[in-house]
Design a protein that fits this description.
Aldehyde Dehydrogenase, Chain A, domain 1; Aldehyde Dehydrogenase, Chain A, domain 2; 2 domains
């Protein structure tokens, strides 16, 4: 075995052992332990910010983009928000033991499908150190052990967050092996996690396109994929002008570096005020890359290339085009979208209903900013990612998405003939 394979194997062994301790704790005790972890994060805020300062200095020296630096940066308010998110997860109702459905077939058996933890989850992520706490909290609340492998750009921040978080958990009686952070930045550790079938039960990648593609290409462990956030907003002909302007600017510019940020704006040719939308975006500091029709409307924009329609900028850059109608807008989304989040702004209920029914994305919205594509905003406490695949879980993946089920069968002496 190589060193990284041995490391991952040993970590997975500790994680599997810790699962038994998690089960014995019970639901209430896991919640109390998470509240202690939340408190520990707040107490460790100075140490976490000091560690983050080292990462931020390295990021600037390495020339990381402003969007990447925004994802990486931690200050007192963000650490407090991280702690609040952990406490919110602690207060959520656990899905474990929930009866999904039950039946009594003619043979007299009583059947139930009951939610249980998945087991040991491996999470491979980049940039955002808050994922360390969010993922750990969701894993513990849902009875799973977790192995975390963060990106090299956040190595010091992740270690400080992990240290504080585990300190609180252990105080609450959670086995230390329930939340582990891979200590090496050797890329071989990622490969070892991807091939750890029988030891790790599911891999969740959170990061750029290259990371997700590598995971999907190499994994021998089931993967819950989070692909690009190529999110669209379609402004229908019936859209309220003021509402459209406010939502469009928010969807792009509130935070440009998150996966729910709008990356393409589609404007119906019969919408009466396209220039208002484009001007508001430019005035807010956004670079616009547009088709020929919109370039005539707003000369401060630049011409879009074909690659712009499939680009996740994660920056104050937006592609925009004029579409002939609802069908044209949905065709564009089908051709260029990533199945993440797509929105329509419309007063026409029939048009909105068609959009919501026919656009095949994990999240579809009507008269709302795509920036709401977030587990916390959906009342899930936190999220481990936005699932864009078609199996297991879609949209914000929180507690329920980290469970599977088993059949519980009760009889009174039945023997099959």
């Amino acid at each position: 075995m190589t060193d990284t394979v041995k490391l991952v194997s040993e970590m997975a062994g500790r994680a599997r052992n810790a699962r038994g301790g998690l089960a014995k704790l019970g639901d209430a005790a896991r919640g109390r332990a998470l509240n202690l972890a939340s408190d520990a994060l707040r107490k460790a805020a100075p140490d976490i910010m000091a560690a983050n300062a080292i990462d931020m200095a390295a990021a600037k020296d390495a020339g990381l983009s402003d969007a990447m630096q925004d994802r990486l940066m931690l200050d007192e308010s963000r650490i407090d928000a991280m702690a609040i998110a952990v406490a919110d997860v602690a207060d959520l109702e656990s899905p474990l033991g929930q009866v999904i459905d039950e039946a009594s077939p003619p043979n007299g058996l009583k059947l139930r499908r009951v939610r249980i933890p998945i087991g040991v989850i491996g999470i491979i992520y980049e940039s955002r150190p808050n994922v360390t706490a969010d993922a750990a909290a969701l894993a513990i609340r849902s009875g799973n052990a977790v192995i975390l492998r963060g990106g090299s750009e956040a190595v010091n921040s992740n270690r400080a967050i992990h240290e504080a978080f585990v300190k609180g958990l252990v105080e609450g009686g959670v086995p230390e092996g329930a939340v582990q952070l891979v200590t090496t930045q050797d890329r071989g550790a990622v490969g070892a996690m991807l091939k750890a079938q029988g030891m790790i039960d599911m891999i969740i990648p959170r990061g750029g396109k290259s990371l997700v593609e590598r995971v999907q290409d190499e994994a021998r462990v089931p993967v819950l994929a989070h692909l690009d956030g190529i999110c669209h907003t379609y402004v229908h002909a019936s859209a309220d002008r003021e509402m459209a302007r406010e939502i469009v600017v928010n969807a792009k510019m509130r935070r440009t570096g998150i996966c729910g940020a709008m990356e393409t704006l589609l404007i119906d040719q019969d919408f009466t005020a396209p220039q208002e939308l484009l001007s508001a975006l430019i005035d807010a500091g956004c670079e616009l890359r547009v088709d020929d029709a919109l370039l005539e409307v707003e000369p401060r924009a630049v011409s879009a290339s074909e690659t712009d329609w499939g680009t996740e900028y994660l920056a104050p850059v937006l592609s925009a085009r004029l579409v002939s109608d609802l069908d044209d807008a949905m065709a564009h989304i089908a051709a260029h979208g990533s199945g993440h989040t797509d929105a329509i702004i419309a007063e026409d209920k029939n048009a909105a209903d068609r959009f919501l029914a026919d656009v095949d994305s994990a999240i579809v919205m009507h008269n709302a900013s795509t920036q709401f594509a977030d587990g916390g905003e959906f009342g899930l406490g936190a999220e481990i990612g936005i699932g864009t695949g078609r199996l297991h879980a879609r949209g914000p993946v929180a507690l329920e998405g980290l469970t599977t089920y088993k059949w519980v069968v009760r009889g009174d002496g039945q023997a099959r003939s």
